[in-house]
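Tokens in:
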């Protein structure tokens, strides 16, 4: 009999503990009703958003303006103007550009191009101080040497623009107009294949290359094409560039001093490019073509 009484007491204690836990839970629910309602509302909104995202991301390019990040490989042909026309002939560019087209058909991007050409004018004037009376350059062995002059340079632009979908297979294609601001650099590359002319070797070469750089602007007007099958994407059009460059060398052998004159470098050309576009296909990520 004495053994049964402690067991009943233990049962009563357990029941009392359970009642206390239930009372605490009830109090928690009552006093946190608003907080739990807020959490429940947020969960419902999150679920609705998750269900909505795939439908939003899977809009068809044929009838919707999409957000499209694009990587472009570019090629251009240019004719110079301004002061630089006296120094160089026509040239080419090749480069890359990364652009994002928004859902309002605005464009923002960054572009870099390598400039090259083989038509350098006034070679006799540029190399004048090292030429003999017969117009030769003498190497270290006392023999006439061959020097080859090339145009080299680069441009970097931050670009803004817009697509006007007046033509093309979908509202993402059409007339493209962009403007850019950035930096331009150009110089003369002097090459002596045999390496026998010390006048143009090492740091001495810097006195002849007329390296110049400065602020630049660009304008592009053309057509941009995003195909409905998302695989044939390109652009083509007229490209204009203006650079206000000054010499970056402390001494010019041809001038026997520093070149303090500025240059207006104008380039009129045609630029084309192939585009790798990243189209949103699902809520999980992007597919590209």
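Residues out:
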């Amino acid at each position: 009999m004495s053994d049964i009484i402690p067991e009943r007491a233990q049962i009563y204690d357990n029941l009392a503990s359970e009642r206390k836990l239930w009372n605490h839970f009830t109090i928690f629910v009552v006093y946190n009703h608003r907080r739990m309602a807020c959490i429940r509302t947020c969960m419902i909104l999150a679920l609705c958003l998750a269900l909505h995202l795939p439908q939003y991301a899977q809009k068809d390019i044929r009838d919707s303006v999409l957000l499209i990040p694009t990587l472009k490989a570019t090629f251009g042909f240019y004719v110079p103007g301004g002061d630089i026309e006296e120094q160089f002939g026509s040239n080419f560019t090749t480069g890359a550009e990364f652009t994002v087209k928004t859902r309002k058909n605005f464009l923002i991007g960054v572009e870099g191009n390598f400039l090259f050409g083989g038509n350098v004018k006034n070679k006799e004037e540029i190399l004048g101080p090292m030429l003999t009376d017969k117009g030769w350059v003498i190497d270290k062995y006392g023999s006439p040497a061959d020097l080859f002059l090339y145009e080299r340079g680069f441009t970097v632009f931050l670009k803004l623009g817009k697509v006007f979908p007046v033509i093309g297979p979908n509202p993402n294609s059409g007339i493209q107009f962009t403007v850019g601001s950035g930096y331009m650099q150009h110089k003369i590359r002097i090459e002596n294949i045999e390496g026998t002319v010390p006048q143009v070797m090492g740091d001495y070469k810097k006195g002849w290359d007329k390296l110049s750089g400065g602020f630049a602007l660009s304008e592009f007007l053309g057509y941009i094409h995003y195909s409905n099958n998302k695989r044939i994407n390109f652009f083509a059009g007229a490209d204009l560039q203006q650079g206000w460059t000054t010499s970056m060398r402390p001494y010019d052998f041809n001038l026997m001093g520093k070149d303090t004159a500025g240059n207006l470098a104008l380039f009129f050309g045609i630029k084309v490019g192939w585009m790798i576009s990243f189209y949103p296909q699902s809520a999980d990520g992007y597919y590209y073509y």
